[in-house]
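phosphopantothenoylcysteine decarboxylase
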Amino acid sequence: MLLSSFSHSFLPPLNAASLERRTRWRRQRKRGRQPPPVPETPSDPRAASQEELMAKVEGSSENIVQDGAQPVKPRILLAATGSVASIKFESLCRSFSEWAEVRAVATKSSLYFLDKASLPRDVILYTDDDEWSSWKKIGDGVLHIELRKWADIMVIAPLSANTLAKIAGGLCDNLLTCIVRAWDYSKPLYVAPAMNTFMWHNPFTKRHLEVISELGIVLIPPITKRLACGDYGNGAMAEPSMIYNTVRLSYKPSTVNGSG
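Tokens:
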């Protein structure tokens, strides 16, 4: 009795509200309380960001196609001069044709070394004869001017000692040198010389290289090897792969061909 009286004396009195809460709780225990609803797990933010990125990529690709802003192929004008290295001109044309639109120019003396029939079918080869046969009357286009307008880049490979001297002196007595004389030097022009070692080390060659350098013409230097004449030394044209890579790596894409 003493313990019972002691215990109940410290219990708080039950009012109607407390009794109702206790009764409701007991009923829930008998039925088994339902767990609170689990909120939906938010999507993985990384997955969301990937989806957004893909949407942007797809959207940008569509814009490129729709807006016509896709970079166009560069127009490359390749030229060969009277050097035995012109036997590699066909290989050079094939390399560039895989990446660019290519047209070719050959001097009369270069035709002793290159086989026109071996060039890729989509490469049009122009010679001095075409310069005169394409013009009929006043108002007709002039070939060397039209090629100058068409090209984004010009590459003379091989460049002989004779043509180097002509360019440095401003001479224009054939189709190739007329194009160079009319060239827009805001557009790249590369030359890959090829000549005998004694000609390469001649003082005139040094002077001529300095002159064309002032014009902004880019030199792709010759290499040292056993030359076609049997001499060993510097003067052989750089390999076609080196010429191609030099031009390709320096190229800045544009959405417009030519400069007019």
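Residues 75-250 form a domain with the Rossmann fold fold (CATH 3.40.50.1950).
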